[in-house]
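Sequence in, structure out.
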Amino acid sequence: MILPVVAYGSPVLRKVCDDITPEYPELKKLLADMWETLYNSNGVGLAAPQINKPIRLFIIDTLQIVEDFNEEDKRKYPNEKPIKQVFINARKIEETGDMWPYNEGCLSIPKVREDIQRTSKVRISYLDENFDRHEQEFHGITARVIQHEYDHIEGKLFIDYLSQLKKRLIKKKLDDISAGKVKTDYRMLFPK
């Protein structure tokens, strides 16, 4: 089932999320619904708070972004391999590598894209959908997508990295999103 994506301004997007256990109700169905929602909205990642669940769960599928690399991207990230992965109860261990800008967007903040500086590597521990524990380092675009989605389960948004000037420049757009004055190709849930 395609779920509505929670819009900017909804309190759930600012919550530090809770861990879950294998007994979490209907987890398999929730994951299936999240994948369907992600693909319906043409995203590369989706965190549980974005579907109104304050839990430490996010999914990513970087196939489309890697397939859409231009020649410069292919030179910059020659070893980038797409991944499709579930991350449960993730904890960031460290961020390393060079800071680099990339134009990010967010399903919860439609029609807003900005260059965001992030490190080129991230090491995290997480559980997969079978609740098997992993600790892994990710690089490049994959690291960026993970950092973006990880921020969601920590109550942060990519716009938090913007300067005060940039935030003032996009304030009207953000206000319009919160008020439901934005059109998307996917279902959204706006703050009350």
